[in-house]
Amino acid sequence: GAYLIGRFENMDTLIGMYQDPNDATDVAIGLMKIIDTEASISWGQEIYKDANGSATITVIDPDENLNCNEVEYVPVFIIVNPGSWNPVDGSGNDGGRSPTNFCMLLRTGGVSGALPGDAANGAPINDAPIRWYNIYNADANAADPIHHATADGLYYIEYPVVGEDNVTFFDTVQSGGITRVLFYAQETGVSTGVFQLNLNSILTDLTFNSLNVRDVLVAYYLDPNDSDDFKLATAYIEEKQHSITSFTDESRAGKDLFWLGRDPVYVQVIDANANVDPCCPEQVVVHVCDPHGEDDAEWLILDETSSNSPVFFTFAGTQLWPVWDALGVGLANAVGGFQLQADNWKLEAFNEDDVYVRYNDVYYQQPNLATGAANNDIRLGLGGLGDSNIHTSFPPLITRGSYNSFFGLAPTALYAGVRVANDVSFDIMSIADTQVYDGSSVNMFFLDRQGNRVSGYMNSDCVFIEVVDPDQDEDQHRRERIDAYWDGLQNVPFGPAANRDFGCVLGERIEHSVNALLGDTNIFNDAPNGAPNQVFHYQPKLYVLNPRSGFWAAVDLLETGPATGDFVSVICIDLTNVYECVPQLGVVPGDTIVAFYQDPSNHSDSAMISIKVGIGGGGTPPSHQSTTMFVDANGGEVSAYTDAEMVYVKVIDPSHAGGEILAGALRVEGQAFDLMAVDGAAATFITAGLDLGLTAGQVVTATYSDPTDLTDLSSDTITVIASILAIDSFYAGPNPFETEVTFGFNGTGVATTMSVTIYDLAGGIVWETTQTDVSEITWDGHAGGGTPLANGCYIYAITATDGTNTFDGNGKVFVNR
Fold first, then answer.
1. Cβ neighbours of residue 163 closer than 8 Å, sequence gap 6 or more
2. Would strands 713-721 and 699-705 be described as parallel, antiparallel, or unpaired?
3. Which helix (H) or strand (E) holds 143?
4. Do the bridges between strand 776-779 and strand 156-158 make them parallel or antiparallel, or are there none, so unpaired?
């Protein structure tokens, strides 16, 4: 009965579910986490003397060591001066689709590879996004990771060359500028997780005839099995004199970790070249890209911080949103909570993602409303940014200055739109993440009607769900909600399906299309309806399920308070009911129920928990039976109280491990009291001090009843003694004694301090002690140093006090061994 679905990525949660073929109530689950490591990529050196030299790119990514018995390969992309030219096919109204940067390459798949001698201009666009399933593509490339001639499994971009209508040009081996950008780094050993790409000659292996001083070589690594693990590294030809680009907070302090919904994203660029007019504030443009699958890309405008300043900054900040809206509301005319839009001046991402920003030292075309607005084409320049239309200004057009064939003007300044064509600078930041299941523990709990966490065993009441997921606290000023149907069927790897509606009379169970253990009947009939003729409703991502009966209920979660990250379901899911034909999970004694959660902002963060249900005589398993005892204020067990003391009762109940309060679960002398969890002591609860007006001689009984299993009862009794000391006489017995003797008194009360001193017949002290809160003291007949005393007569003296009343006594005691 165990099942696995789909392709696995690092940090994914795998859930196994088993059902005993001879006992449908016996269901068990197991969780496993796919190991994840963050990769790194680096060039052998930052600055190369010239482009004829050799270079090494090293990728360290232990989780890509997929086979410990083989040398493996990982893909590395290399682009020269990305973003410094306009798309070669930029004459259409789609803004140009031949890639000029890594983000565009991922989106379009680049251009078709052309063999030497083929026409270059207008090379067809692949129009197949680069994803995990095609990033390797052809195994043949691994055998010759640098020079293999076939186009399969490789990716190409089209650089502009001399004579083309563009703002800069490259000297590529192919006259048309079509150049390979995907290479394979080879593992350094069979189980190292370290991969190297060796370029014997930078020019030859990158297929360039020449490169310029200060050209930027950018190496990108995107983990094929973990698309939120992205890294880049830069190297330079001969020297590095470039701008500085960085992610910051609102105070312009560097920042590399951002929380979805909480942190606006700010970008800063330092570039003296961009300060062209010392009198007036100016602007520059940066490109922000999240390379994770379908994630976001934005072009942002930065303002000069002051006149004649080299510093440019996004003063307003950019909103950082999750790709999936946890409320399940989403955009207008959209189904579910998917809300990603490229080119909307908002950045949407997943938890764990790596996001980069790139700056090019160029001018971009200002909007020309007279000629561009009506046609909705690339002549809009910057005017097309932020309009949620990637066919306008995506990327924005780098201006040609006075030369622009679009407007039919004569060429007077061919490269006026580029300040420094090879000034490219980057920064990279990460999206914060927490895991409900981290591979060792699950921060997800069943709750009873009183809000107490319950584990192991539950009675036939009803159940709530609690999930602790701090990265879902995406607004620290309000309580938030996670909708059970946050994705509207757009992301359906898992979950029960409402193949039939709940009714008083149900026919034979309809099995789930993926696995029979997943449910078929939504007991609340509240799932959004599917498309016409669709046999099932939308599948939930948060639900409680009885695998035996097939009944399930979706649950919405509400945050318990602002900035808590603690979410609790808002309705009570009935397990069974005394009434007929009411929505409930239809449990029978011994059933196992499960609850599932998937983080809308990180689909790898999934968790499932289970619990056994006992009904009527089912009872609590012996290992979860409670224990009740009278204790002092520190939790230490006591054998008696005085009539002046406060009463404390401690209960240990493993079935409530993790709970915080057991409301009214204890009765002492006919009164109900709450039990509070003891910090650092699992499944242990204690009362506050109870003033019961005790009297000497009274016998007190405390009885605990498990709120989730009334058959689990435990109790303790204790006797009350007088607190005022009243002594009639002292005694020592047995006397004579062989092994030990007990000194005590006849009377009432307990001595707060009691002392016994033993003398020999010459008056020397042979042993003495002082003890507190006692009524008896025992001596074993040894001297203070532990030496056994000889047989004979010894004198004892006793003093007892309660702090107000003091009593003294003495006598003889005989040792007889």
1. 169
2. antiparallel
3. helix 140-143
4. unpaired
- pLDDT for 126: 65
CA distance 763 to 761: 5
Round to whole Å and give the CA distance between 426 and 419: 17
Spatial strand order in the sheet of 551-554 = 457-458, 602-613, 592-599, 542-545, 551-554, 521-522, 500-501
Going by C-beta distance under 8 Å and a sequence separation of 6 or more, which residues neighbour residue 671?
A: none
Q: What is the β-pairing status of strands 566-569 and 557-559?
A: antiparallel
Backbone angles phi, psi at 648, to 5 degrees: -125, 140
Question: 766's torsion region: left (phi>0), alpha (psi -120 to 50) or beta?
Answer: alpha
CA gap 402, 700 in Å, rounded: 99
Q: Which strand (E) or helix (H) includes residue 107? A: helix 102-108
Number of Cβ atoms within 10 Å of the Cβ of 386: 17
CB-CB contact of 116 with 142 (8 Å):
no
Tell me which residue of 182, 99, 179 sits closest to 137, measured CA to CA. 182
Q: Which residue is associated with the tokens 């190369």?
A: 48
Structure tokens at 649: 């009762």
Contact between 434 and 444 (Cβ < 8 Å): no
Nearest to 613 by CA among 466, 738, 461: 461
pLDDT at 235 over 90: yes
Q: Which pLDDT score is estimated for 327?
A: 81
Q: Which helix (H) or strand (E) holds 108?
A: helix 102-108
Query: What tens digit of pLDDT does each residue of 581-616 get?
Result: 888 888 877 889 999 999 999 988 999 999 988 754
| Cβ atoms within 10 Å of 533's Cβ, excluding its own | 5
Tokens of 241: 């004199």
Give per-residue pLDDT as tens, 179-207: 989 998 999 999 999 999 999 999 999 99
What are the phi and psi torsion angles at 704 (to 5°)? Answer: -110, 140
Question: Other C-beta atoms within 10 Å of 149: how many?
Answer: 9
Give the per-residue pLDDT at 378.
Answer: 44
> Please, what is the Cα angle at 711 between 709 and 717, to 5 degrees?
110
CA pair distance 791, 770, nearest whole angstrom: 24
Q: What integer best gives the mean pLDDT of the chain?
A: 84
Residue 356 and residue 222 in contact, taking contact as beta carbons nearer than 8 Å: no
Element (H, E) at 105: helix 102-108
Distances (CA, A) of 678 to 5, 654, 706, 708: 42, 13, 17, 20
Residue appearing with tokens 């709120």? 707
- Nearest to residue 100, comparing CAs of 159, 154, 153, 155? 159
Average pLDDT over residues 99-126: 71
Phi, psi angle pair for 707, to nearest 5°: -65, -25
Tell me if 769 sits within 8 A of 778, measured CB to CB. Answer: no
Strand blocks (E) in 333-405: 346-349, 354-362
- Residue 334's nearest CA partner among 488, 183, 480 is 488
Q: Would you state the pLDDT for residue 62?
A: 94
State the average pLDDT over residues 137-153.
Answer: 44
DSSP helix, strand, coil percent of the chain (3-state; round to 5): 5, 40, 55
Compute the distance between CA of residue 135 and CA of residue 106 in angstroms, rounded to an integer.
10
Q: Which residues of 648-664 are buried (b: 16+ CB within 10 A; e: fewer)?
A: bbbbbbbbbbebeebee
Phi, psi of 617 (to 5 degrees): -75, 5
Can you name the residues that pair with 779 across neighbouring β-strands? 741
End-to-end, the C-alpha distance of the chain in Å comes to 73
**Cα→Cα distances 589→24, 543, 655, 808, Å:** 11, 21, 17, 66
d(CA 328, CA 332): 12
d(CA 64, CA 227): 12
| Confidence at 11, pLDDT banded by 50, 70, 90 | confident
pLDDT tens string 323-345: 988 887 655 665 567 888 899 99
SS3 379: helix
Task: Give mean pLDDT, residues 678-688.
Answer: 90
